[in-house]
Design goal:
Elements (H helix, E strand, L loop, with lengths): L3 E5 L2 E4 L2 H16 L9 H8 L3 H29 L2 H25 L9 H11 L5 H12 L5 H12 L2 H16 L1 H22 L4 H7 L4 H10 L10 H9 L2 H33 L6 H29 L1 H21 L3 H29 L4 H13 L1 H16 L3 H4 L2 H17 L18
């Protein structure tokens, strides 16, 4: 990470593509943990605050609101200022939100913990959830570090490695709660986020183009020098033009819908929901919160890493075909979960569901640089931002199934994903326009995952 490329005696450029990828992935890993800010401890908060199913769903989804809204402008902003500043702002916001939760727990838990704190916890969830927006920052930042023929590798590592963060937290937080208590467990989580923020502030680095621009080099000269050093993907240079251009492309909105089901209202929503599902529906005994967290973390880590496989499948068979098959797989897994009354078939259904969602995630982003080639940053912002908003609808709906049907509602709620999976499979097969013959896939057009 200390490598420097010397262009002339007056100008040095810091970093290497792999160093940039490492720090972006670490920052994304830490920032994305915020989407399960209440996930693994959901059953604890539900019980202590006396929440209904819908209220629990709203609390679990509160971090999703800010990450969904912030993904849009922050993803496009990278095209103007690079990724380092946006990363630091988002990680700092997550630290502030988590510090608020730790403060509430320190002064009120357990003796004075009650419904009067619900509003405060919702607010801190909103602030802390900003870290989830690091996804739309890291996608373009990573793209600008690597040549076109390495985009698939780089973005696969970034997305696959960073997305396992929530799964790790879903396992470690219940263990920490069991060993040290709720307050200390959250304080440890806060310490980790702060440590990563400091590391990224010191070692995080933008691509050569942005370093040159920060040194006052004119855009044309910065472009030429960076290209000589191996950079092949360049920003539009204007935040709002990137957003406007991508918004006028109707294909962007098809991908927004597919992503909102596969990731925002799918993988991310269930990452927050599964700890409560497993604890309340399958592991109701005392001392089994860690087991619920383990099951949920397996789902999240597997669903994240399978994206790398999904990217390779999409490269080989095309994102449209892979999306169709993966959404059908998602519907099948959800169908199993909707009728599974015991842990073993439920776990099997969860893994089938995770396979479908994870591969669909990769298939959708495989299409972004092919369908919106002139505004990848803006398109990533719209897709990641609005798509992430699917959690705001799905989590309260899942809680509503519990309120209406009682305990069995935890299973019946997955019928929602059966319906959504089949709709998305139809959209992928019939509605996604084929890649124009004038723009064939080639080794130099490796897609984002």
């Amino acid at each position: 990470m200390s490598d420097r490329t010397t262009l002339n005696p007056e100008r040095d450029l810091a970093g290497t593509p792999n160093a940039g990828l490492t720090m972006a992935t670490l920052a994304f890993f830490a920032g994305l943990t915020s989407i399960v800010m209440y996930g693994a401890a959901g059953p604890t908060f539900k019980s202590a605050l006396g929440l209904t199913g819908v209220q629990t769903g709203l609390l679990l989804s509160s971090p999703q609101v800010s990450q969904a809204l912030l993904r849009i402008p922050f993803g496009a902003w990278v095209d103007e200022v690079g990724g380092k500043m946006p990363f630091l702002i988002l990680l700092g916001s997550t630290a502030v939100g988590m510090a608020g939760i730790v403060t509430v727990l320190f002064f009120y838990h357990p003796a004075h913990f009650g419904p009067h704190l619900y509003g405060f916890l919702l607010g801190f969830g909103l602030i802390g959830g900003a870290g989830g927006a690091t996804f739309s920052v890291g996608i373009p930042q990573t793209s600008y570090w690597f040549p076109k023929d390495q985009q698939g590798y780089a973005l696969g590592v970034f997305a696959g490695g960073g997305n396992i963060g929530p799964g790790v937290i879903n396992y470690l937080l219940p263990v920490g709660i069991g060993l040290w208590g709720l307050t200390t467990a959250y304080a440890g989580w806060l310490s980790f986020v702060l440590a990563v923020t400091v590391l990224y502030a010191v070692f995080g680095i933008d691509s050569y183009y942005f370093q040159l621009r920060a040194d006052g080099v004119a855009p044309d000269s910065a472009h030429e020098i960076s290209r000589e050093l191996g950079q092949e993907v360049f920003p539009s240079g204007d935040t709002w033009e990137s957003l406007r251009s991508s918004a006028l492309n109707h294909r962007t909105w098809i991908l927004v819908f597919l992503y909102s089901v596969s990731c925002g209202g799918g993988l991310m929503a269930l990452t927050a929901w599964f700890p409560t599902y497993w604890k309340a529906f399958h592991f109701q005994q005392e001392g089994t919160l860690w087991l619920a967290g383990l099951a949920a973390s397996i789902y999240t880590i597997y669903g994240s890493l399978i994206r790398i496989v999904g990217g390779s499948l999409s490269d080989r068979y095309g994102g449209e075909a892979v999306a169709t098959a993966s959404f059908c797989t998602m519907a099948a897994g959800a169908g199993i979960l909707s009728v599974a009354a015991t842990p073993l078939p439920a776990f099997f259904g969860m893994m089938v569901l995770g396979t479908g969602m994870g591969v669909a995630n990769a298939a959708v982003f495989e299409l972004v640089p092919l369908y919106v080639p002139d505004a990848v940053g803006g398109a990533s912002g719209w897709i990641g931002g609005i798509g992430a908003g699917g959690t705001l609808v799905v989590l309260p709906l899942l809680g509503g199934f519990v309120d209406v049907y009682g305990r069995i509602g935890y299973a019946r709620g997955f019928l929602l994903f059966v319906l959504l999976g089949l709709i998305c499979a139809g959209v992928s097969y019939f509605r996604v326009p084929p890649v124009p013959e004038t723009s064939p896939r080639s080794p130099s057009e490796q897609p984002a995952h």
